[in-house]
Amino acid sequence: MGTTPRPLVGVKPSNSLLLLAFLLTFVLVGSRGESNAMDNVATERMAEESHRQDSANLLIFIMLLTLTILTIWLFKHRRFRFLHETGLAMIYGLLVGVILRFGVHVPQSMSDLVLSCAVNASPATLLVNVSGRFYEYTLKGEVSRSKGHQVQDDEMLRKVTFDPEVFFNILLPPIIFHAGYSLKRRHFFRNIGSILAYAFMGTVISCFVIGLIMYGFVSFMKVVGQLAGDFYFTDCLFFGAIVSATDPVTVLAIFNELKVDVDLYALLFGESVLNDAVAIVLSSSIVAYQPAGDNSHSFEAMAMLKSFGIFLGVFSGSFALGVATGVMTALISFHMLRDFPLLETALFFLMSWSTFLLAEACGFTGVVAVLFCGITQAHYTYNNLSPESQDRTKQLFELLNFLAENFIFSYMGLTLFSFQSHVFNPMFIIGAFVAVFLGRAANIYPLSFLLNLGRKNKIRSNFQHVMMFAGLRGAMTFALSIRDTATYARQMMFSTTLLIVFFTVWICGGGTMPMLSFMSIPVGVDSDQENARRNTKHESAWPFRMWYNFDHNYLKPLLTHSGPPLTATLPACCGPLARCLTSPQAYENEGQLHDDDSDFILNDASVSSMFADVTVSTDASGSHTVNRKRSSTASTGGGPWDEGLDHELAQAENEVAIRGTRLVLPMDDPVESVGSFHHRLQYHS
Amino acid sequence: MGTTPRPLVGVKPSNSLLLLAFLLTFVLVGSRGESNAMDNVATERMAEESHRQDSANLLIFIMLLTLTILTIWLFKHRRFRFLHETGLAMIYGLLVGVILRFGVHVPQSMSDLVLSCAVNASPATLLVNVSGRFYEYTLKGEVSRSKGHQVQDDEMLRKVTFDPEVFFNILLPPIIFHAGYSLKRRHFFRNIGSILAYAFMGTVISCFVIGLIMYGFVSFMKVVGQLAGDFYFTDCLFFGAIVSATDPVTVLAIFNELKVDVDLYALLFGESVLNDAVAIVLSSSIVAYQPAGDNSHSFEAMAMLKSFGIFLGVFSGSFALGVATGVMTALISFHMLRDFPLLETALFFLMSWSTFLLAEACGFTGVVAVLFCGITQAHYTYNNLSPESQDRTKQLFELLNFLAENFIFSYMGLTLFSFQSHVFNPMFIIGAFVAVFLGRAANIYPLSFLLNLGRKNKIRSNFQHVMMFAGLRGAMTFALSIRDTATYARQMMFSTTLLIVFFTVWICGGGTMPMLSFMSIPVGVDSDQENARRNTKHESAWPFRMWYNFDHNYLKPLLTHSGPPLTATLPACCGPLARCLTSPQAYENEGQLHDDDSDFILNDASVSSMFADVTVSTDASGSHTVNRKRSSTASTGGGPWDEGLDHELAQAENEVAIRGTRLVLPMDDPVESVGSFHHRLQYHS
């Protein structure tokens, strides 16, 4: 073990080399005779060996996932529920980490070269001149903190530690896209104001509260002498940013299964999805403003403003990019590709992935872009896909999400033992737990109070307690903290974050069920009944209504096969333009609707009256209510995950359309017809 | 451009370092002051820049694929057929390659270090000590042949050039697995003897013929002075091995669409799938025996035998591994996971991928393992999956195959311009084309003659000409040749191989249709009619019959939910064992069959008589004929790609079963019943 580098006598560099700081030329220690043929063979052998070990390492993860799947099945089969599958994946990861750490001893390969140099920075690419041939080496990351030039590198463990970029480029996009694609937009947009408040303001509050508390702790630790390295205020803020991101994965799974109150679900899920994005942008803007000339790592108002500007720019840029790609995909699948499910699915997949890459290449945040791309795809593109492609895309992203999620959680477990530069500082850990708890409280309770001032259906206190409790930290927190583990501060953050994630996933995740029953929050709620029962005034706010009308009358017809044709919605003077923009397929589609008016029927109060009998507070004239109903009743407005219901309702809609009158609903016996409708709703939801 | 390394004064190494040849320690040129904070920032900046460029590079490929998909759609939409989609992908790749090469000029980044050292070999991993912190660098490959220490590295082009390992580990497995999974096993196994002959003997013959011809050419070139580097006999043999692999991708697509004669299709496809595997093993065993002590690169009988031993060992090991994983997956999905399509699909995917990794980690050939894994999965596991998972797995692998295939072909196009060490030697290229042509001829014609001696239905001469013509070189040839492009010989091989692939895909691939009509080979053949018409004696050879019976009576019941329960097939003395091995589900399944005998009905001669009226040579007593019919009629024997037919037939089978007698077929009017059966067959095929 332990290859010992021996710094030899330094050589005085020439002047030209001093000018080019990064252009370094090294000299060989021990020049050898040429035997080219043997070189090739040795290189090939080594490459083969390395390839074999890479395969073995990847195999470990595949086996871990397989094991997790089998255990998940067992749990589902036996109806165990005390541990969520992500927690399970983490436990398996832990076990394998222990085995790799203490059980396996791979002989140290002799193929590692150790180069010593005191360059300012490690370059991303190295070109090594080996006997006149140039080999390219890419930076894989820092290996371990060398103490007195002693590299303690267990090769196996080092290789098992992934490039953090893999998380961002490969594993996170499918998870976030799936979250956007499967979002229940109806409930989400009904609570959009509160969700945005929690996600934006809440996360910023939480970030600063945690940052300040941690700064207090760190300062105290410095005084006591517990701190072995630098820990600046910006580091504290950075820590606050990364641990403020709550995880949608576990929340989604638990609450979806339990069928908890739809508003609570929407709030928690919406917050956790969006605050991932907020945390990414926050942390990267903290890093970005850090190097602006000063090494003081202190807090400045100007820098703060700049940071805020970066934040807004990056967020809105990513948002625009994601929506743009979604719209482009909708347009492509609107005008072509129909009847070729394989091509459609492939295009859908590629476009969604390219959103992420494009955003990253432009310097925006891929995760934010991919989230809004997912939402746009579900809102527009989904309606243009053939039924087979709808199934295929759903299933594909479900699978990718499942695999990525379990991979991340088992990797988290593994890292606790395989990561080599852990810094567990008990005081820092205690401080972090306190700070995370207080930060979450400072997010939820004050904001809920403020929001309740404006909300018609209040966020009750038991809801607030559950939101406080269910703020699990998961994949995003982990990914953000593993991204850079170069300094002492970052290593301590990483180790602490890992513990926070473990604790919240196991304890808070596992305790959600008891918590819900303790808070007497009903589970097993039928979301559509719930939906029908609650008719909230605050939804019909004018910006939302305007957006809905614009979307329904212009965007949907332009981008999807649903909605009225543009010729009908645009003013008469725009006739030629409308005819030009409406594709032949749209006219075909129009033909299928049988009646130009059929779409408006559902915009009419008549439909809302279908539900009016069972709603508590009837709002027959409110156009928004109608609109919302419309979005829940038309097949064209359905998201990927509730088209069963939508299909059924679309049939009803068609019946309406076929009769060709504006008020054809069976109003003679409203209770019965509503009853039968409800029966269908319940059956399908 | 061009970072110039300047070798400085060498430093005398200490003794201990001389002992450890690979453990080198370098000294810094130009020691710098410590400014740790700035380091981090610079490192982060550079990592960010590198990440951004990586995203942009990947984006190029995604855009290429998107463009290809849209054009494929256009072609399908307009019913163009003169160019196959893989050819199209290649053209787009070429265009982008030209643009990147001549259009884009990325400023040379200053972040490249150039290290000079005359080490014997380039290690797989470098540890660089940067101001006391260790960074790991991994070998990405040789950059370009440096002429007089001048590194001409256009960074963009270099980055766009993928790690060849990506082909082997990411892109090839799904293609080969899909080939195995979608294999029409009925036709494949009917011609298994001929396919094995072409794939094994044919490829070896072709390899040696090409190797010898190339050796002649190379020797001549050496005399004439046209050769600028070393080119040994083993290099010639290696070249023979890599260009002997014919490509299943294009063949599959063209012939599948045209519905050509099933036997011709089976022969061509079977050969091309298996000879990929043969070429891999051949080429790696040629490389493996090369370094065995001697640097003479000459041909030795002993080495040849050793090579042959390696070949057999690797091939059979990979085969066994692939089958073992397939069987394991079948067992898992037999005993659990049913009712959870997501888990099933995920497990199926992971197990299939782990086959590949396991084989590579063990030193076997992943591609061979994954091919047989695919066949096994289709034969056993597929029957255990829930209908939803059957669809999901089919669609998933179809998509992966499609993406990987188009990616490879567009990458091929790109490489023609982006690869920086091309060696185009006109004489070598002419020689290679001649050699490839003759090698193919030496494979097909003599073997066909020999096979025709034993075959009942001869391989006609027009079939032979088509097989000769349709021996396209594709993904595997490319992947094998790009794997190592370090030496002059390998670079020349790579460039030549690229041209061969382009030529065969565009000219031979595009010319297949005219060729078929010129050879007066009928297209649009109904495979099942064909199947029924032809009843070949050679199929009922005893090894095949024995295997079938064993498979049907013991393996299928043990591994799938189909076939008779073991309690019925095992002798009475094994009753307890049989009962132990048969899971509760199997008994349930047994219940569904309504009648223990129902399965045997179809083993009886009565079923074969269903088809007997329309077959040319009736063979009512041959148990194999019956068996084959059984495999085409029972839903349980159907492969992933023809379950539509199988489902229909299963219903018929059920009708038989329900009546509960052994001879219930409507024999009173056989012509009519066969007619109606045929109607269904035609409808579904």
TrEMBL record, chains A, B:
Disordered: annotated span: 618-643
One Pfam family matching this protein: Na_H_Exchanger
GO molecular function per UniProt: potassium:proton antiporter activity; sodium:proton antiporter activity
Major localization class: membrane
Tagged with keyword Membrane: yes
GO biological process: regulation of intracellular pH; sodium ion import across plasma membrane
Domain called Cation/H+ exchanger transmembrane: residue spans: 68-516
UniProt KW keywords: Antiport, Cell membrane, Endosome, Ion transport, Membrane, Signal, Sodium, Sodium transport, Transmembrane, Transmembrane helix, Transport
Membrane topology: Multi-pass membrane protein
Residues annotated as signal peptide: 1-33
Keyword Transmembrane: yes
GO cellular component: plasma membrane; recycling endosome membrane
InterPro entries: Cation/H_exchanger_CPA1, Cation/H_exchanger_TM, NaH_exchanger, NHE-6/7/9
Segments passing through the bilayer: 57-75, 87-104, 166-183, 195-218, 310-334, 346-375, 396-417, 423-442, 488-509
Cellular compartment(s): Cell membrane; Recycling endosome membrane
Superkingdom, taxonomy of origin: Eukaryota
Annotated family: Belongs to the monovalent cation:proton antiporter 1 (CPA1) transporter (TC 2.A.36) family.
Name of the featured protein: Sodium/hydrogen exchanger
Natural source organism: Echeneis naucrates (Live sharksucker)
Name of the gene: LOC115054697
